[in-house]
Structure formats: C-alpha cells, structure tokens
Design a protein that fits this description.
Two copies of one chain form a homodimer. By secondary structure, chain A is an alpha+beta fold. Chain A has two helices and five strands; from the N terminus they run E-E-E-H-E-E-H. Chain A has helices at residues 50-71, 122-133, and strands at residues 13-16, 20-24, 33-38, 75-80, 89-95. In chain A, strands 1-2-3-5-4 form a five-stranded antiparallel beta sheet, with helices on one face. In chain A, strand 2 (20-24) and strand 3 form a beta hairpin. The radius of gyration of chain A is 15 Å and the shape is globular. Chain A starts with 12 loop residues before the first strand and ends with a helix. The A-B interface holds A 43-46, 53-54, 57, 61, 64-65, 68, 75-84, 86, 95, 102-105, 107-108 and B 43-46, 53-54, 57, 61, 64-65, 68, 75-84, 86, 95, 102-105, 107-108.
Chain lengths: 134, 134
C-alpha cells in the first residue's frame, strides 16, 4: 500500500520548507490541530541525523508557539506515534479544558460534545511560524 | 494540590542529570515505557529556552535509540501531553504489534490482552543513554 504521507496534497498545506510541511489536522472538533510531516519516508526520529532532527523539532515548536499566540489554549499536546502510518509526523494540538476529550488525550475516551471554535487564520499562522523560525 | 512530578522518587529513576530524569512508566503491559521528566515545574516546551529544549529532546531521543537497541520494538511512540499534570514530561514507549493497544495509542481502545515481555535491564539502559548523549 502506498504511504498516504508520501503524497502531498497542496490544499491542506499551511507552511512548508524543503524538509517538511505543516498540514491541517482536519478534525472539526480540534480547530487547533496541525501535523508536521517530514518530507522523506522515515519511521523514527532516531533515523534522522542530528541536524535534521533539530530542524524538525524547531518547526514543531514554532507551530506550538504560534498556536499559543493565536489561540491561547489551556495546553499543547505533542505526539509522534506513527503506528498506522510509519512516516514521521508530529501531531501538534491546541487543547482546551472544554474540548471533546480534555483532560484525556484526543485518542482517549470522549468526555463531552465538542464546543466549536474557529481555526486560526492560516496566513497568520504561516507568518508566525516563519517568524518563530527566523 | 502538589504537583506529583515535582516530587522525586529515587526508586523509579533510571538515569538523570542536573536538568531532567528518566523514570519507569510503571505499566506492566508496557515494559518499554519510560518518562523523561524536566526538573523544574514548567508546562510547555516553548516555555524553555532553546538550549534547554534541545537538551531535553536529546535525552528523549537517547532513550528512544536505547530502547530500539535493547528491545527491537515495531515502533517508538513519543508524546508530551500534560493535560492532567502540566509539568513537562515526555512519554517514550516501545510499541510491539502484539501489545495491548497496537496500532492504537496506549491511551486508546484496548485491542487484546497484553503479551508479557521483560523490561530492559536498567543498568544497561542507563549506560546506553549516557553513551548516546556522549
């Protein structure tokens, strides 16, 4: 089966450089949910060299900082799992005390109906990510 | 309520330096489950300065590499959530295709009874973490 993260969909890209891309999480219950996807098909962070790993994490933390600035969440969740799709990607999720699963992980048991929030403006998010990395 | 991660329990420490400690996950279904806990009570990675953040991640990736070498897991899962305990800590989990939740996250729905495995020898794990960081 072809790896779904080896295929780039232009319409879900918020930010990108030559190594990785930030894409929308596409979960209406989580408007502050983004994925940072490594360009090459690699399974584990320890498969990357130190420079690549640091750059990847710098982008993850830039998304975190940007979501904090734009959405003021109660918590940020970060995860690299890849059990189903072993192509390196980080989940960066702005969490709110009244969201669907809080304080559980978004992969845990639902706690309540999701309160709808607006996603951040993607041009503003992209600009902030670039600024954080500059 | 006092933060449980501000209290250090000497008996669950596998490795430590002046900034952080690696402790056992204490889940019998997950013998390759460790937590890397930052010493100071800080909630988010973007609250740390760049040097601290890089050191913290270097330790997380050293635990990942060491678990891969000692346990040969099918996947490594990394996560910093902290919704319940907002004191920075990384979950580093060696996952196996026959473990309790695979391919779901360990916070998801159980898939089967856990097949029991041995945890790595902690002296060997500590030595490998130090070697990875050297």
């Amino acid at each position: 089966m072809e790896c779904p993260l080896c295929i780039t969909h232009r319409d879900n890209i918020v930010w990108q450089d030559e190594y990785c891309r930030v894409i929308t999480g596409d979960d209406p219950a989580y408007p502050g949910y983004y994925r940072v996807v490594w360009g090459k098909h690699v399974a584990e962070m320890s498969d990357l060299d130190v420079c690549a790993r640091r750059h990847f994490m710098d982008v993850v933390f830039a998304v975190e900082s940007s979501l904090r600035a734009l959405m003021n969440p109660d918590k940020i969740n970060l995860a690299s799992l890849g059990n189903k799709v072993p192509h390196l990607h980080w989940h960066v999720i702005a969490r709110f005390a009244d969201d669907r699963h809080f304080p559980e992980s978004i992969w845990g048991r639902e706690q309540r109906s999701a309160l709808m929030r607006n996603a951040p403006d993607h041009a503003a998010l992209a600009a902030r990510i670039s600024a954080e990395l500059a």
